[in-house]
Amino acid sequence: MASSYLKPISHVLLGISGGIDCLNSAKLLIQLWKVADRVTVVMTPAAMRMMPADSLRAINSTEVLTDPLTNHMSLPDSIDLFLIAPATANTIAKLSSGIGDNLLTTAAIALSCRRVVAPSMSSNMWENTIVQRNCKFLQDSNFHVIPPTVGTEVLELKECYGAMPNEKILVKLVLKHLRQQNTKEFTAFQP
Ligand SMILES: Cc1cc2nc3c(=O)[nH]c(=O)nc-3n(C[C@H](O)[C@H](O)[C@H](O)COP(=O)(O)O)c2cc1C
């Protein structure tokens, strides 16, 4: 991995699918810029209905890919981490079936870098046996799944178990995972 001395990730591709946690994507993007030399974003069409791509572009001039038919072969070779957050039940199902019907899902099949998925959904969706099976399958297929936590389900403003960890904790968990992958660059780094 070719990363700078100060930042442990060289180039992260942040995949945003259409969960309500898209509302936190700006905060997550800012946090990722603190630990990566370069951040590129890819959004599903559903995500773009919840979070304007231009808002994310405004953050440190981030490149935001929004055309689902962008050629995945044009994605830079420098990407060393693909973080899909939030990952909807729908996108998780596609990933676990090898479906590539937009740039995010196609990239997940095509990229050979480390892939981390952060599911985000209501408690009922998270407890659904099909979602559980799909996550287990992803875990067994070289995706690292960061389990959701207790949070506020904003659609009904009630507590749920299915929320994505907040951006600081999420990035810490990602770095912890990368560290456990035995990569020397991460050992000394504290975000
Ligand atoms: C307001 C709203 C909030 C949603 N939040 C979630 C969510 O948090 N998690 C989830 O899995 N699906 C959620 N959905 C459903 C997804 O948007 C839907 O399954 C969509 O097809 C996902 O597409 P994508 O996976 O390609 O982004 C929500 C839908 C709406 C209308």
As residue ranges, the low-confidence spans are 186-191
Number of strands: 8
Look at the structure and give the mean pLDDT: 90
- Gyration radius over CA: 15 Å
User: What structural class is derived from the secondary structure elements?
Assistant: alpha/beta
Strand neighbour order, sheet with most strands: 3-2-1-4-5-6
The CATH topology annotation reads as Rossmann fold
Number of structural domains:
1
CATH architectural category: 3-Layer(aba) Sandwich
Helix content: 25-40%
Main sheet overview: 6 strands, parallel
Instruction: Identify the CATH homologous superfamily.
Output: Flavin prenyltransferase-like
Bulk shape: globular
Total of DSSP H or I helical runs spanning 4+ residues: 8
Q: Please indicate the percent range of residues in DSSP E strands (runs of 2 or more).
A: 15-25%
First-residue to last-residue Cα separation: 18 Å
What is the CATH top level name?
A: Alpha Beta
Tell me what the structure shows.
This protein is 36% helix and 24% strand. It has 191 residues and is α/β, with parallel strands linked by helices. The protein has one domain: Flavin prenyltransferase-like (Rossmann fold), CATH 3.40.50.1950. It has a six-stranded parallel beta sheet with strand order 3-2-1-4-5-6, sandwiched between helices. Strand 1 (9-16), helix 1 (25-35) and strand 2 (36-43) form a beta-alpha-beta unit. Helix 4 (89-97) crosses helix 7. The longest helix has 14 residues, at 167-180. It binds flavin mononucleotide. Flavin mononucleotide is lined by residues 17-21, 44, 46-47, 88-91, 120-121, 125.
